[in-house]
Amino acid sequence: MKRSGTADLPLHYGAVPPWLAERMAKLGLAITEVILMEYGKAEWVRRLSDPCWFQSLGAVMGMDWHSSGITTSVLGALKKAINPLSKELGIYICGGKGKHSRQVPNELVAIGEQTGLNAQQLVHCSKLSAKVDNTAIQDGFQLYLHTFIVSNEGEWTVVQQGLNDATGTARRYHWHSQQLQSFVNEPHTAICGLQSGNILNLVDKDAASTRSGIVSLSKESPSYLLPEIQQQLILPAHHDVRAKDVDLKRLGAMLWLTHEKKPVDFEELLMLEGMGPRTLQSLALVSEVIHGTNSRFKDPARFAFAHGGKDGHPFPVPTKVYDETINTLHQAVQKAKIGQSDKLQAIKKLTELSQKAEENFIPNSNFEQLIEKERNESWRYGGRTVMGEAKKPKRSKGVQLRLF
Asked: How many CB atoms lie within 10 A of CB 159?
């Protein structure tokens, strides 16, 4: 069993507005269905164990790109959309925040009765993964969210999040059931996060003598100090998206493809007639979340350029574009179910074309103008934030989209 990594996130409070929560559930389901069709259940479960991919998924769904709220909101949206279809899809999402986390054992027992999986073993894995991150690894974060995701083939992922009151940050932990060997001896691929001095790590291979005599991970034991030296995904406190947060070459190539080259050059290939460049921009980023390789998700902020963020960063959520993206993806999924996969393959082709465009691409430095353009035009696309609807600018500034 491996812990795939962690993510350190600024702590954000506040509920997701209903208009966004509904869209997140629909888009999350559509993305899930495509991944299941193209890559299978094991791959979908594995991706949820990747902190960078998970953060990119939250950003493309319109959540604040760097906040701790992505964890609860994305998992909540997926659970709401997927669990009613679990028998058909073969995947189940248990637990959640606070009191919902305590329902995981009961939910797993019910899943075991439906699928024939060993529920008691799954409950054991759920409890031990929480014990390791909350007790055996004492890094200053107290768990308050625990979600257990499992397929009907028995592969699982745990996503859990802890709070550090002293720093005002949250830390997300990801586990994956691949290559299960031991929970108490080197179960992690890394202990990641902000450099914060020494931590207590009772599951390090050099702590075997310390673990001697321990019957359960919840008991007291002598401590073993280990410097925390590795990092994986640490997101900044600033709300605004800055050029340094984004791979400009990748973003610029995608914008050139969807706005300058335009779909007219490959309309037959895409089977997406009538789609404007703004929706194609969002669809290209959604396509990359579905089809991109692991190395493509080191800059989650880039995926906020699909549907903005509910806090207005980098720009308000364009609800009309969001709905068109959902409808296009949903129609492609439904057609693929009856053997007509042309539209689904066309969406996949967007990722291939965008990556090909990057090969010799040199972006300009007009990143702030790009964001200004998106904000000025947000009202055209039904832009919304938690503060309300985007307003038409009093004067058009005529900003040119020239990141490339």
From this structure: 24
pLDDT above 70 covers a percentage of the chain that reads 75
Give the torsion through C-alpha atoms of 179, 183, 185, 189, to 10 deg.
50
From residue 122, alpha-carbon distances to 59, 207, 254, 396 in Å are: 30, 26, 42, 58
Rounded-to-10 torsion of CA 351, 353, 355, 358: -150
pLDDT tens string 246-256:
888 888 888 88
Q: Assign 225 a pLDDT band (cuts: 50, 70, 90).
A: very low
Residue that has been written with the tokens 């702030």 in this structure: 368
Please state, in angstroms and as integers, the Cα–Cα distance from residue 322 to each residue in 60, 181, 333, 344, following that order: 10, 43, 17, 18
For the record, the structure tokens of 266 come out as 């490959």
DSSP per position, 96-109:
EEGGGGGGHHHHHH
| Per-residue model confidence as pLDDT tens digits over 327-336 | 999 999 999 9
Contact assessment for residue 62 and residue 23, using Cβ atoms and an 8 Å cutoff = yes
Q: Is 330 exposed, middle or buried (0-12, 13-18, 19+ CB in 10 A)?
A: middle
Pair 122, 148: CB distance under 8 Å: yes
Rounded-to-integer distance, Cα 14 and Cα 167, Å: 19
Residue 210 confidence (pLDDT) above 50 = no
Res. 75: pLDDT tops 90: yes
Provide the whole-model pTM.
Answer: 0.82
- The secondary structure of residue 206, as a DSSP letter, is G
> CA 68, 377, 19, 25 torsion: positive or negative?
negative
The DSSP code sequence of 273-299 is TT--HHHHHHHHHHHHHHH--GGGGS-
13 burial (CB, 10 Å; 0-12 / 13-18 / 19+) is exposed
Alpha carbon distance 84, 202 (integer Å): 40
Name the helix (H) or strand (E) containing 75.
helix 69-82
